[in-house]
Amino acid sequence: MVKETHRYLRERFKEEGDEAWKEHLGKEEELKKYAEAMQTLATQHWPAETEARSSRVGWVRAAVREYFYGGGLKAATDKEMRKIRTSWPHTGLSLLLLPT
After folding, report:
1. Are the C-beta atoms of residues 90 and 97 closer than 8 Å to each other?
2. Burial 40-50 (b: 16+ CB within 10 A, else e)
3. What is the dihedral of CA 75, 80, 86, 87, to 10 degrees?
4. Which domain of life is it from (predicted)?
5. Which of 41, 58, 50, 29 is nearest to 3 (CA)?
6. What pLDDT digit, counting tens, does each position of 32-50 carry?
7. Which pTM was predicted?
8. Which of 2, 15, 16, 43 qualifies as a cystine partner to 20, CB 3.0-4.6 A?
9. Secondary structure (H, E, C), the chain
């Protein structure tokens, strides 16, 4: 039910845009079945919080948090800026335009 609904919405959105979403929201009985299916997934199939830490989902969540909130983005940006500064004579960039 969940995968089929997502696939259907993606296809319809490509064809009709926002109208597909409006139509979807009007299907109360289908939305109720979808909500029940999502609850079943969340409570019976997805790992509990303690298990999630060692799962792929938990790993991705931790990696995203580290990147955006733990300094990963700044470290990646700093690394790229060092590469640019090192190669700037070959690229024609002015060091005056680069942030420090």
Report:
1. no
2. eeeeeeeeeee
3. 180
4. Eukaryota
5. 41
6. 999 999 898 888 877 666 6
7. 0.46
8. 16
9. CHHHHHHHHHHHHHHHCHHHHHHHHCCHHHHHHHHHHHHHHHHHHCCCHHHHCCCHHHHHHHHHHHHHHCCHHHHHHHHHHHHHHHHHHHHCCCHHHCCC
